[in-house]
Structures are given as C-alpha cells and as structure tokens.
C-alpha cells in the first residue's frame, strides 16, 4: 500500500482487469509499447559515398542554380531559373513559360512519374534511398546530431540545445535556399536580414523551415514508415527480376557467433570476387505484400553456422531501423547502407562480401551464386520506360512549338457593329498581346478579306493611333477599330458575320507576329 493513499496492488489489478473487459479498450499491460526513436549509426562504404555525393549535388542545385545569370535583355530578370509568381511566368535559361504552357509542365510531371516507376521496377526504392528530400534532409540532420556530440565532447547538458540550434539553422538555410527560386538570389540574404522583402517571402521561408525541422530533425524515419504513401504500392511496381536489398538466407543461416564453425559447403564452395551490388529472394502475396520466398535448402543445411554472425550491424545503420534479415519490408528504402555495414563485417572476419546485396527473386539460390543483373528488357520496365519516353517526346514537341507572340482578339458584342454617318461600318475588338521576344516596342495590324478596310488603335488621349504601343513590356492591351467604307450596289455584302483574318506586325522590323481568325459583322442595308 502507498502511504496515505489507500491504494493497494490488489485495487490496481482489479482496475486493470475492469479496463480490459470494457468493449474496445485494452488493458494497460496489453497496450502497444511506445516506439523508441531510432538513431542510425554511421557507416562507411560504397553506398554511403554514393549517398554523400548525391546529397552534395542536390544541395548544389538548391543553393547554387538560382545564382546562375542569364541575359534576357533590358527590363527582364537575369536569373537563369526564376519562378516569377507576380508575373505568372517561369524562366528557365532560354525558356519562358506562361500559364497557357501548363501542358508542358504536366508532361514533365508525367515523365517524372513514369521515370520513378521505371527506376523502381529496375532497382526497387532507389528514389527513396538516394534522392527523396525526406531521406536527404534526415541524413543531413543525422550528421548535425553527430557533429553536435563531437563539439559538446561528452557534455550531456549541452548536446540537446546545441543539436536543436544547429538543426534550426539548417532548416532556416533550407527555407532561404527554397526562396531563392522565387526572388532575385544575390540580393536575397541582405534583404532578408534587413527586412526588405514582402511578408509572403518571410512566411514561405518560415513554413519551409518549420516543415524541414519537424520532418527531418524529429519525425525522421516515421515519415517513411507511417506518412509516405509510396511504399504502400511498391509491390505493384516490382516483379521477380527487380533488384532489391536482400539478405542471402541460404548463405547466412543459421546465425551464430564467429567462434562457431562454418557450414562445410560454405568452405568447400569456390568464393566469387567481392560484390557490392544487389539482394535476395522474395515473394508476392495475393494481398500485395512482399515477403521471403520459402527456401527448401535451409531444412537440409548440415551442422554449422552460416556467414551471418548476428552482430546486428545492419539494423544499427538502417535509417528506418528494420532488420533486412527478416526479408523485404515496407520500411526498406533501398539505401544500401546495410550492405556497406555487412560488407565491412565480412571483410573483418575474412569472408566474401555480398551476404546482403541487391538481388532479384529469380537469382540463383546457391549460397555463393553471383548476383543477378539489371534486366532492362522486361515487360513492366519496358512499359514504364516507354511511357516516360513518350511523355518526354510530347514535352519536347511542345517546347519546340512554343510561339513567341500570343495575340487574343475578342470582338465586341454590344453593339456588334456601329453604323457611321457616312455609311461606313465599324467593328470594335479588344486585342491582348503577350510576347517572349527580347524587345517589342509597337505593333501594327492589317486585315485580310476586306481590302478597303482601315484599322486604327485607340490611343491614351481618346484619339486614334496607327499602332499599338508595347513600350518594351511583356504584355499590352488595346482597342482595335476596323472600319469598312461605304459600299454601293452589287458590292454590298449580306448582313451577318463574315470571316476575316487580322495580321499583326512588328512596327520596327515589319515582321509578321501573329494571325488571328475572327469575324466582321455587317448590318442590314
């Protein structure tokens, strides 16, 4: 009994039993224990070096590409890649995209999606393991945490605040790097610190930094395990020839410490050259889940251990904390760090590497068989690859056929025509022009189908002008007047709309810019 409380062990047990009997409520002892945070250990090897190099490339793209300059002429931004939200434009080196070019962006996204499907069908979740922003930034925050431990030199009280401060700095830098793609990059840092940016920029930097900090520094592997939808349908993209991270059970089992003698066939089989490549056999269940394929050779294994010494190193370095020896799992992101860890251990105990590797289900089950090779010409891979190529071809066609000048002509319908005092007929049109030319100062117009007609643009002072002034801007709008002179006798056209073609020219060079089909309304005579 607790002193002064009146609570006994019997009363606690009775309360727990009563709670267990309530519908939909589990007893406290039966509740699932809280998952401890997983902090992966560092490792060296081929895949670790590859991940580090790719991280440097991605960070270089994020922070350095906006600093590249690209001369587009006076009055236009000289940033090579810029998302100009106020102007509703995207500048990408020599390319300028408008909202009406949305199909090109959609085509790029479709090509990217099928490219991701294609890579997954070949080598599993290599996107998740090497390129996913969540994986990259979780890796970065892991390095920050280890750096904080080295700086603190064992001072436990300082490790937490130091890690938090350094992680917050990384998150803020990430937000600023993201903002560089939407404003002028060279002047961003000074204006950011001086308060010279719009509130929307500060809000965007804060939100990006917040999500980066929460997801990368705290949620970490839980995003991959519980939040990300990608692993839920990866089984639909894999087949029996896909290369995934695999533990070679026929070689590694049964597990035991190094002092236990090896199975005789592991010593008698000629050893292949060390491999750093691919994994083991897995099966696809009817419900879409993936697991280890049954292995009949394991039951006939003679006395002795396999190559796995059960050191647990593969689990310690795994970013999601899974045990790859239990088979292919939804939590495996295909990063290959467990391969590096296992190869390191195998080298230390004078055994060939490749106990964990990238391999296919159809690979040779023999303990010392070489890994399978990537099969590019398989139905699923060819479908995804072909769809990606078609999407890229469509995007290329769209980019090649982008028009530099876009002219929209809208006839005025109230009234459709104006009958002037001298018998002339006037139709009014609203002309909206946008262009991607280096410079355009003015536009003139002519009409095909009405040889006697005259055309005038309204000017700012209420009069008429022979041309529409653009003034070096990217867009302009004006009112166009098309006047049909008086006609007599047989020359009188019937009442109603008549097709005409408006042709627009550059005032300075006379070059034709655009042709627009429209109509001219004639009155009853």
Which descriptors would you attach to this protein?
single chain; 525 residues; alpha+beta; 4 domains; four-stranded antiparallel β-sheet; 14 helices; 17% strand; elongated
Instruction: Tell me how many strands there are.
Output: 17
What is the number of helices?
Answer: 14
Give the CA-based shape. elongated
Radius of gyration: 35 Å
Largest sheet: 6 strands, antiparallel
Number of domains: 4
Structural class: alpha+beta
The span between the termini is 111 Å
Q: Are there runs of 5+ residues with pLDDT below 50, and where?
A: 1-16, 22-29, 270-302
Mean of residue pLDDT values: 84
Helix fraction, binned, reads 25-40%
Query: What amount of the residues lies in strands?
Result: 15-25%
Task: Describe the protein in words.
The chain is elongated. It has 14 helices and 17 strands. With 525 residues, it is α+β, with helices and mostly antiparallel strands. The N terminus is likely disordered. It folds into 4 domains: 33 residues, no CATH class; 186 residues, no CATH class; 121 residues, no CATH class; 118 residues, Immunoglobulins (Immunoglobulin-like, Sandwich), CATH 2.60.40. Helix content is 36%, strand content 17%. The longest helix is centred in the first third of the chain and has 24 residues. It starts with 8 loop residues before the first helix and ends with a strand. The strands form 5 sheets. Strands 8, 9, 10, 12, 13 and 15 form a 6-stranded antiparallel beta sheet that branches. A 4-stranded antiparallel beta sheet has the order 14-11-16-17, with no helix packed on it. A 3-stranded antiparallel beta sheet has the order 1-2-3, with no helix packed on it.
């Amino acid at each position: 009994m607790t002193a002064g409380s009146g609570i006994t062990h019997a009363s606690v047990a009775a309360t727990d039993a009563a709670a267990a009997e309530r519908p939909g409520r589990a007893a406290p002892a039966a509740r699932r224990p809280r998952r401890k945070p997983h902090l992966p250990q560092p490792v060296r090897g081929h895949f670790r070096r590859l991940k580090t190099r790719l991280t440097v490339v991605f960070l270089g793209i994020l922070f350095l590409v906006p600093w590249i300059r690209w001369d587009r002429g006076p009055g236009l931004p000289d940033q090579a890649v810029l998302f100009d939200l106020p102007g509703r434009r995207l500048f990408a080196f020599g390319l300028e995209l408008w909202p009406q070019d949305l199909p090109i962006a959609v085509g790029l996204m479709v090509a990217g999606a099928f490219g991701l499907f294609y890579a997954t069908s070949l080598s599993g979740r290599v996107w998740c393991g090497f390129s996913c922003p969540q994986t990259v930034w979780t890796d970065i925050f892991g390095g920050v945490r280890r750096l904080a431990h080295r700086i603190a030199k064992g001072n436990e009280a300082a490790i937490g605040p130091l890690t938090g401060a350094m992680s917050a700095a990384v998150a803020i830098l990430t937000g600023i790097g993201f903002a560089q793609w939407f404003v002028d990059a060279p002047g961003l840092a000074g204006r950011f610190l001086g308060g010279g940016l719009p509130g929307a920029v500060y809000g965007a930097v804060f939100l990006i930094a917040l999500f980066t900090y929460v997801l990368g520094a705290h949620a970490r592997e839980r995003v991959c395990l519980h939040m990300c939808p990608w692993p839920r349908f990866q089984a639909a993209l894999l087949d029996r020839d896909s290369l995934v991270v695999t533990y070679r059970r026929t070689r590694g089992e049964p597990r035991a410490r190094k002092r236990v003698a090896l199975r005789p066939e592991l010593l008698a089989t000629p050893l292949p050259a060390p491999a750093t490549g691919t994994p083991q056999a897995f099966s696809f269940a009817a419900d879409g889940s993936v697991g280890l394929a049954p292995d009949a050779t394991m039951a006939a294994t003679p006395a002795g251990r396999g190559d796995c010494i059960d050191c647990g190193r593969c689990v310690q370095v795994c970013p999601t904390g899974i045990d790859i020896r239990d088979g292919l799992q939804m939590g495996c992101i295909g990063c290959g760090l467990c391969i590096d860890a296992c190869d390191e251990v195998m080298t230390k105990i004078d055994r060939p590497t490749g106990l964990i590797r990238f391999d296919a289900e159809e690979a040779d089950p023999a303990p010392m068989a070489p890994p399978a090779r990537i099969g590019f010409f398989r139905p699923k891979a060819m479908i995804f690859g072909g769809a990606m190529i078609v999407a890229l071809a469509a995007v290329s066609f769209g980019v090649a056929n982008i028009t530099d000048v876009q002219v929209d002509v809208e006839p005025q319908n109230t009234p459709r025509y104006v009958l002037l005092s001298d018998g002339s007929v006037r139709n009014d049109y609203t002309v909206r022009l946008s262009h991607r030319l280096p410079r355009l100062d003015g536009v003139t117009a002519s009409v095909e189908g009405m040889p006697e007609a005259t055309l005038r643009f309204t000017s700012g002072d209420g009069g008429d002008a022979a041309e529409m002034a653009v003034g070096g801007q990217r867009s302009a709008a004006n009112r166009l007047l098309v006047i049909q002179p008086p006609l007599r006798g047989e020359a009188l056209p019937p009442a109603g709309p008549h097709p005409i073609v408006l042709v627009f020219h550059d005032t300075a060079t006379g070059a034709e810019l655009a042709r627009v089909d429209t109509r001219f309304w004639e009155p009853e005579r």
